[in-house]
Design goal:
alpha+beta, 12 helices, four-stranded antiparallel sheet
C-alpha cells in the first residue's frame, strides 16, 4: 500500500509535496483512483452490481427527482457493438460489464402521465442538465464503490460519438440519452494502470472570487509534471498538456461527432429551451 | 454504527431487504450519506479543504481536460449574499464553507491563447456538458471525502436560480458558470438529518436494454416507501412522490428562474451550438 505522501506525490506528479494533514481511509481510497483500460474476463456478479448501484443511488439527486438510469450491458455481442460505436475502444469490448449512464427525463414524463399533470419544464436545458448531473453524481459513487470491491473502471465519454446508434442498441426511448459509459471489471495485473497527475490545487481552487491570471504559474508547473509523467510511462505524447488540451478543443472536427449533440437531443425529445 | 442491513433498509425505505452480499467500508460510507441542512459554526480548516480538493481532483475527467474549478467561500457576508441568491436557503449562510462548483471553459480558452491555437470546439453544447460533468464527478468525490472527515454536505442546485448575480459576486469570467453549490460544515447534532429512501433498483437499473414499462411496479412501491418516510419525519408533504415530482416539472414557472439558463449561458460566452 502506498503511503498518504506517496499518493499525494503521484496525484500531483510532485514528490516534494508533504503528506496531507487531514486524512481518512475514504480519502486514501479516492486518491488511489486510476483509469483501468485492461481487464480480465472474470464476470462482475449480481451481488457486486447490486452494491455498486446502491452506492450510486446514495449520491445526491436534484430535488430527489432521480433523473437518471443505468444500463448494465454484459452480453459480449452488445459490448462489442458498443466498443465499435465508442471510438473502437478495445476496453469496452474487453471489460465484462459496461454501465451506460442515462440522463433520464422519460421516467419523469411517465410520472406526469400517471398523475395527469403538465410537464413543460422538461423542455428546458435545465432539465437536461439535471439529468446529466444526477447521472454523473451517481456514476462517481459507483466508480468508488466498484474500486472498493477490487474492480477497475474507466469512463467512456465517446458513448456520445454516435448517439443514434447507441440509443437504438439500448432501446432508449425519447427524453433519454447516454451521457457516458463506464467499463467495470477486474484489472489485468499484467497491464497495470498508473495514477495520472492533476493540476496543482492553486489552479482549480479559488478563494472567495475566481481568478484566471492566478492560474498561470500552476499551469506551467503542471506542463512540467505531465512531461515527466509521459516520459515515465513511455507515452509518445507530443507537446505539453496545454498543447494537447488545446488540440482537443480546436474545432468541430475534434469533437468526434459530438458537434451534432444538439441536433440529436432535439430529435430525441429534449427541446433544450 | 448501523449494520449493512440497516443501511440498505434506510436507503430503500424497506426493512424487509436483506443485507447485501457484496460490501466494503467504502460502500458502507457512501450508503450512509444524508443531506445536512443544519450546521455548527466551527470552521472547515485549510488542511481539511486541501484533502477534500485532492479527492475531488482524483475523480475522472474527460480527456484529462479538467474543465472545472471550485470557489471556496468562507466570508460570512458573501455566504449570506449567496444564500439570498440561492432561494434564500438558510443553510447556505449557516454552513461555514460554501463550495461553488464551476463548469470552466475559460481555462481551456486561456490554454489556446497561450499555445496560439484555435478553440472552436468550446462553442458547442458538448463542451459545456464536459465542464458540467467534470464538475459533478469532482464534487461527488469531494462530498464523500468531506463526510469521511466528520463533516456534512448538501448540494445547492438553486445556485442556478440567479446566475448573473452569482457570477458577479464570484467574479466569474466569460465561459465559466456555477453549476451548483455545496454547503460544508459540522452537522448540528441537535438537528440531525436522515437517510432519504431511493427508488428500488428495478426502476433505475436496466439489463441490456432500457424499459419504461418495467419501472411502474417499482414506482408504486416507492410512492408507498416515501409516504412512510414523510410520516416518520413528520414532513408535511401532500401527495405521493410521483405527484411531488410532477409538480417540480410542470412548467417554466416551476424552474425558479432556471428557464433562462440558455440566455444566461449565451450571454456568458457559451454558444451551445
Amino acid at each position: 500500500m502506498p503511503t498518504p505522501q506517496q499518493l499525494i506525490a503521484a496525484r500531483y506528479g510532485d514528490a516534494s509535496l508533504p503528506a496531507p494533514a487531514a486524512w481518512s481511509p475514504v480519502i486514501e481510497h479516492l486518491l488511489g483512483h486510476r483509469s483501468v483500460r485492461a481487464y480480465l474476463p472474470d464476470p462482475v456478479d449480481d451481488d457486486q452490481l447490486a452494491a455498486i448501484i446502491a452506492a450510486a443511488q446514495s449520491a445526491s439527486s436534484s430535488s430527489n427527482l432521480q433523473a437518471w438510469s443505468v444500463i448494465a450491458v454484459r452480453d459480449p455481442a452488445r459490448r462489442a457493438k458498443l466498443a465499435e460505436l465508442a471510438a473502437k475502444q478495445d476496453q469496452v469490448a474487453e471489460a465484462p460489464l459496461q454501465l451506460v449512464w442515462i440522463a433520464d427525463l422519460a421516467r419523469l414524463e411517465r410520472l406526469t402521465e400517471m398523475t395527469q399533470r403538465p410537464d413543460g419544464a422538461l423542455d428546458y436545458l435545465e432539465a437536461f442538465l439535471v439529468g446529466a448531473i444526477d447521472a454523473a453524481l451517481a456514476a462517481q459513487n459507483a466508480a468508488a464503490a466498484a474500486e472498493s470491491l477490487g474492480l477497475g473502471v474507466v469512463f467512456i465519454g465517446s458513448m456520445r460519438d454516435k448517439p443514434e446508434e447507441v440509443a437504438d442498441l439500448l432501446a432508449l426511448p425519447p427524453k433519454t440519452v447516454a451521457v457516458f459509459g463506464m467499463c467495470v471489471g477486474k484489472p489485468d495485473p499484467a497491464r497495470p494502470a498508473s495514477i495520472k497527475p492533476r493540476l496543482p490545487q492553486s489552479v482549480v481552487l479559488h478563494h472567495e472570487r475566481y481568478s484566471l491570471d492566478a492560474q498561470e504559474p500552476g499551469i506551467e508547473t503542471y506542463n512540467s509534471a505531465m512531461m515527466r509523467f509521459y516520459e515515465q510511462q513511455k507515452m509518445n505524447v507530443r507537446g505539453t498538456w496545454a498543447v494537447h488540451s488545446s488540440k482537443r478543443v480546436a474545432g468541430a472536427e475534434t469533437l468526434s461527432g459530438r458537434d451534432r449533440l444538439v441536433d440529436f437531443l432535439r430529435a430525441r425529445g429534449f427541446a433544450l429551451k
